[in-house]
Design a protein that fits this description.
By secondary structure, this protein is an alpha+beta fold. 38% of the residues lie in helices and 16% in strands. Strands 3-7-8 form a three-stranded mixed β-sheet, with helices on both faces. A three-stranded antiparallel β-sheet has the order 4-5-6. The radius of gyration is 28 Å and the shape is extended.
């Protein structure tokens, strides 16, 4: 009997009690299905503060012969509710009503309050093959006007959606949205024959293997004619050393180095570009953390506020690059747009194999 036969033939509660995410994955179950089974295991089997209500739910589900699909549907309906107490109350009510899947679904729809209306928002997806997806939720009249303006002159014999892209972009550019101008920043790896000695004011003092010392700015002047460009110096273990340009504005330099180190928010799967991020102290300012480049990273507004929330994980520096550390201690880099300075300068052919010194 394979996994899917057991879902149909075994008792739902027996299947849930013996659920293994690894086994389900190896059996080829869809990720959404695995998440649903995992959630049922959490509700009916895992440790909880409400053991009595959990036992009562198990008894009702077993006695009334609910299937795994029926139990999963109940949990989908209950998911929007923020109150665990209300979820538990409605779960027990639904488990008292054995019926067909469709009848139970209609009952759940009547009992569970409707989801709140969507609020205006705009989201931007990840880049893929040079394209990105934007989702916009806005007042219906405004979007109706936008759609009407973009739909003028479309060919009715061709698909509508692809034709709307060009007119919408023309409306955007005509509305004054400027094209982003890339800011060239030359990344210079600090040779391992040099050693970081100390910070001296706005400069970094470097020790060379010939027994002499120099500043980072002098080192770059020897190897790179500026010609109006900017250059940043990075150490293979300690990360950004300093940024040199005609005007030495420490705050600007620190922000630029932090952005060069992480081109997007470093929290896994976040796509917020560093230009739209905030500067975050790895060691909090209130805890004595300094506003030095070796303590600064970029974080999007949301993750900057979630970083110190207990149980949500936090950003640390590993090998000079920011990575997210989970509540259980796992260090996970953001796999999206992995072209930060440390990866670009000091990784092998496969950035995913990089193991920074100090990790």
């Amino acid at each position: 009997m394979n996994l899917f036969d057991s879902v149909l033939r075994a008792s739902a509660l027996d299947f849930i009690a013996g659920f293994s995410e690894r086994v389900a994955t190896e059996a080829g179950a869809a990720p959404a299905q695995i998440r649903a089974w995992k959630n049922l295991h959490r509700v009916y089997v895992a440790a909880t503060h409400s053991r009595q209500k959990q036992r009562l739910a198990v008894d009702k589900a077993r006695r009334n012969g609910f299937s795994v699909d029926q139990l999963a549907m109940i949990e989908r309906r209950l998911k929007p509710l923020k109150s665990r107490r209300e979820q538990s109350r409605l779960r027990l009510l639904l488990l008292d009503a054995p019926s067909s899947y469709r009848t139970l679904e209609r009952l759940a729809k009547r009992l569970v309050p409707p989801r709140p209306a969507p609020s205006p928002r705009a989201t931007f997806g990840r880049s893929r093959d040079g394209l990105r997806t934007m989702t916009l939720t806005a007042p219906e009249r405004d979007l109706a006007d936008l759609e009407h303006a973009a739909a003028q002159g479309l060919d009715p014999t061709r698909p509508r959606a692809p034709q709307l892209v060009g007119p919408l972009l023309e409306l955007m550019r005509g509305g004054g949205v400027p094209r982003a101008v890339p800011r060239p920043l030359i990344l210079v790896p600090l040779a391992e024959l040099t050693k970081i000695l100390r910070q001296q004011g706005d400069e970094t003092i470097l020790g060379l293997s010939d027994g002499t010392t120099t500043t980072g700015a002098q080192l770059l002047n020897d190897v790179l004619p500026h010609h109006g460009l900017e250059a940043a110096l990075f150490h293979p273990q300690e990360g950004p050393v300093n940024l040199y340009r005609a005007e030495r504005l420490a705050n600007r330099k620190q922000r630029d180095l932090a952005r060069a180190t992480a081109p997007v928010c470093p929290v896994p799967d976040c796509t917020c570009p560093s230009d739209d991020c905030e500067i975050h102290h790895v060691e909090a300012w209130r805890s004595g953390g300094q506003t030095n480049i070796d303590n600064l990273v970029v974080l999007c507004r949301y993750h900057n506020r979630m970083n110190e929330v207990p149980g949500r994980g936090r950003i640390i520096l590993r090998g000079g690059a920011p990575v997210w550390r989970s509540p259980r201690g796992a260090q996970v880099p953001n796999e999206h747009h992995r072209y930060g300075a440390m990866t670009t300068l000091f990784s092998g052919p496969d950035p995913g194999n990089r193991s920074p010194v100090g990790s």
